[in-house]
């Protein structure tokens, strides 16, 4: 979508820029650029789109579009939507931002945090049973395991907070600290 083609020219400049920037951000987050661009296009679309429309608009190969749609379906960021009189599958994005962020967080947790917790548990167990491991190494492994476990527990608590209350908590930012007791060594 870097050149002004007939299909991409039909998109307003702000939409083109959003799709391009979302694709760039996706790349920085470890998501394929095409996946992120398709997600952005569907997120901004006021109607469901079929794969050929997506491919033509973004000027990407149909096979790339198909694979990207499968990935987005797996993340539950888009869904198939029937369109009257159409045999082709159409897609639309989840537009509720809290749902979208929650689904992304859940997917990342399953792919990144859960394996880390499991691996660190094994390392911690093995380190505590191996007398060749120094006390320092054992303590650091245990500390890392505990930290990741606490993050996992925090995630489980936050995912259960109703979206409206979670947004309120987010908006409070560091003001929430005024409700907490001071930590040891804190002024």
Describe the structure.
With 187 residues, the chain is mainly α. It folds into two domains: 88 residues, Orthogonal Bundle (Arc Repressor Mutant, subunit A), CATH 1.10.10.10; 78 residues. It contains eight helices and three strands, in the order H-H-H-E-H-H-E-E-H-H-H. Strands 1-3-2 form a three-stranded antiparallel sheet. Strand 2 and strand 3 form a beta hairpin. Helix 3 crosses helix 5 and helix 4 packs across helix 5. The longest helix has 33 residues. The N and C termini lie far apart (52 Å). The relative contact order is 0.07.
CATH class division of the largest domain: Mainly Alpha
Strand order of the largest sheet: 1-3-2
Shape: elongated
Class inferred from helices and paired strands: mainly alpha
Mean pLDDT over all positions: 92
Runs in which pLDDT lies below 50 for 5 or more consecutive residues are: 1-5
In total, the number of strands is: 3
| Helix/strand order, N-terminal first | HHHEHHEEHHH
Q: How many helices does DSSP assign?
A: 8
Q: In the CATH hierarchy, what is the architecture of the largest domain at level 2?
A: Orthogonal Bundle
CATH-level-4 superfamily name of the largest domain: Winged helix-like DNA-binding domain superfamily/Winged helix DNA-binding domain
Q: What is the percent of helical residues?
A: 55-70%
Q: Tell me the count of domains.
A: 2
Percentage beta strand: 5-15%
| Biggest beta sheet attributes | 3 strands, antiparallel
First and last CA, distance = 52 Å
- Rounded to an integer in angstroms, the radius of gyration calculated over CA atoms is 22 Å
The name of the CATH topology of the largest domain is Arc Repressor Mutant, subunit A
């Amino acid at each position: 979508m870097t050149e002004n083609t007939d299909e991409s020219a039909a998109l307003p400049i702000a939409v083109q820029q959003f799709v391009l920037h979302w694709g760039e951000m996706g790349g920085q987050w470890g998501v394929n650029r095409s996946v992120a661009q398709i997600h952005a296009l569907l997120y901004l679309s006021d109607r469901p789109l079929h794969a050929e429309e997506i491919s033509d608009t973004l000027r990407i190969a149909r096979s790339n579009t198909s694979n990207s749609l499968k990935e987005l379906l797996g993340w539950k960021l888009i869904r198939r939507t029937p369109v009257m009189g159409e045999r082709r599958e159409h897609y639309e994005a989840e537009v509720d931002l809290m749902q979208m962020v929650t689904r992304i967080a859940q997917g990342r947790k399953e792919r990144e945090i859960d394996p880390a917790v499991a691996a660190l548990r094994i390392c911690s167990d093995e380190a505590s049973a191996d007398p060749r491991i120094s006390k320092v190494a054992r303590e650091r492994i245990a500390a890392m395991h505990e930290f990741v476990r606490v993050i996992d527990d925090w995630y489980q608590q936050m995912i259960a907070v109703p979206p409206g209350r979670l947004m309120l908590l987010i908006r409070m930012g560091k003001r929430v600290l005024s409700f907490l007791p001071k930590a040891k060594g804190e002024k």
